[in-house]
Design a protein that fits this description.
single chain; 247 residues; alpha/beta; six-stranded parallel sheet; 6 strands; 12% strand; globular
């Protein structure tokens, strides 16, 4: 078996390092989204459907291994779509972004800014001109521990910015497009619900979990970057779920 971890925005696979260290399992692989700390393949447009197809290809390349798939932020959104279309590719799945598969999902203010031509480009131009220390402080304000905030803030480059804009602009109507298929998923699923996440409302997450037939694990007191704030608690929730999937 293999645990496959899929990061979000604006991150790289290193965001999983503390959680990986807290897991007792060694069969763990963290994928890198194209354009996030690395190049994009020629012709890759960074749309949501291209990322889903990329993820499916990564899983298929593992040669039929039993896969426990875990996604955070946009990685969690890709998990939602992947198991909606090809649940046979995974043994189990975990997401903290099930709302992307719910008909009542609405984008947060920053997403809407990125989806606006001109305004999104200006955001990343200003970000590039902002000293790294100021960027670090901004991520700390969202609850990211300082040592990890520095890694995230320092990893945002022009290619990542372009990828983020393309991804969000492809997803203006994601609820309408993805929610019909995210129901009654046959593979065992777990929805993580951090109580302090300002981007992914808990009520929508719970409703989406019910529609998909997934169980829910609450993460009280934790925010959007729960995997950095309390990796030990997160690891315990995941391992409890995986033990149940073994039965």
């Amino acid at each position: 078996m293999t645990v496959v971890l899929v990061h979000g925005v604006p991150e790289t696979p290193s965001v999983w390092d503390p959680l990986r260290a807290a897991l007792s399992r060694q069969d763990v692989r963290a994928l890198r989204l194209p354009g996030f700390g690395g190049p994009r393949p020629a012709g890759f447009g960074s749309t949501k459907e291209e990322y889903v197809a990329w993820l499916a290809g990564e899983l298929e390349s593992m040669g039929g291994e039993e896969i426990d798939l875990v996604g955070h932020d946009w990685g969690g959104g890709l998990v939602v779509r992947l198991v909606s279309l090809q649940p046979e590719l995974v043994r189990s799945w975990v997401t903290d972004a099930p709302g992307l598969g719910h008909p009542d999902f609405q984008w947060h203010d920053l997403a809407r800014l990125w989806q606006t031509p001109g305004a999104g480009e200006q955001f990343f131009e200003r970000l590039a001109a902002t000293p790294v220390e100021a960027r670090v402080e901004a991520f700390e304000g969202f609850g990211v521990p300082r040592e990890h905030a520095a890694s995230i803030a320092g990893g945002i480059d022009a290619v990542m910015g372009e990828s983020i804009l393309a991804l969000y602009r492809s997803a203006v109507r994601v609820a309408e497009e993805w929610s019909p298929a995210f129901t009654d998923i046959p593979a065992p699923g777990l929805v993580l619900v951090p109580s302090e996440d300002p981007y992914l409302p808990a009520d929508v997450a719970r409703g989406s979990a019910e529609r998909a037939g997934a169980t829910v694990a609450d993460l009280p007191g934790l925010g959007h970057w729960w995997l950095l704030q309390d990796p030990a608690t997160a690891a315990a929730k995941l391992e409890e779920f995986w033990r149940g999937a073994d039965k």
